[in-house]
Amino acid sequence: MNQRPIIKVSNLVNRFGNQTVHEQLDFEIFAGEIVGIVGGSGTGKTVLLNSILGLQKPSSGSIEFYDIKSRSLGDAERCPTSWGVLFQSGALFSNLTVLENIVTPLIEHTKMSARTVKELALLRMRMVGLPLSAQFKYPSQLSGGMVKRAALARALVTDPRVIFLDEPTSGLDPIAAEEFDELILYLKQHLDLTVVMISHDLDSLFNTCDRIAVLVDKKIRAATPDEIVNNDHPWIQRYFGGRRGRLHSQGSEAHSVHGA
Ligand SMILES: Nc1ncnc2c1ncn2[C@@H]1O[C@H](COP(=O)(O)OP(=O)(O)OP(=O)(O)O)[C@@H](O)[C@H]1O
After folding, report:
1. Domain ranges of the chain
2. Whose CA is nearest to atom 7 of ligand 1?
3. Minimal-distance CA residue to ligand 1 atom 29
4. I need a surface site. Which of 66, 107, 145, 196 has the fewest CB within 10 A?
5. Sorted alphabetically, which PANTHER family does this protein's record hold (predicted)?
6. CATH assignment of 78-160?
7. pLDDT over threshold 50, residue 259
């Protein structure tokens, strides 16, 4: 993993009336990593994501974006094509076909010809494992897994450097979820992506993440999966110390013994 930050969140504060969601929160996202964000309900995962995406103005603090050479980017250079977002529900436009959904960001943000736009969209469809016949379907005609893949193809069509995934495996059966994990790993490797994902799916987090960032006490504690299961914070202990968490930490110990 590359240790240069691509996004740096410093002293982030988010308040709604009397409620403080984030208090002097610091968080760095490094180029080329997959980082998972976890936290209890209402701890501010979505607010953090929206703050990074510029969808929500923080009460105070800064969020800096860097290019691959760690140069701070000005506002003009932070164009929406630098990142892609996969929202939890997929957020596909229900009145557009899969192909029309996928080409939308290219039509909105570039001046490419209709032919190039279509070719790029079909390329991304293939890359995420959607059959080309799906291009003519409407979202209501797709399975849950296909909706996620179509939304992922749309998030990737502008060739972003960072993608944000909000609960990418929620609603998928375990096999489809595992296939989706494999897809994320494949895309990270082949597109040189940085991936930030909010997830409650421990299997998915341990299968894919280089680091796991936990939102507790209005701040972030981030570490490798092996380290985070040993963190002494009571909520983190409880979260990862449950039956499934224990299975994962035993799995990683078994893996390292095997690998030694
Ligand atoms: N626009 C807003 N106005 C007032 N309060 C808000 C607003 N947006 C978020 N909040 C509050 O901020 C807190 C964090 O919300 P957020 O949606 O980020 O939680 P979350 O960690 O994503 O939760 P979940 O896992 O349940 O989706 C919640 O208490 C929520 O009610």
Report:
1. 78-160
2. 16
3. 42
4. 107
5. PROTEIN TRIGALACTOSYLDIACYLGLYCEROL 3, CHLOROPLASTIC (PTHR43023:SF3)
6. 3.40.50.300
7. no
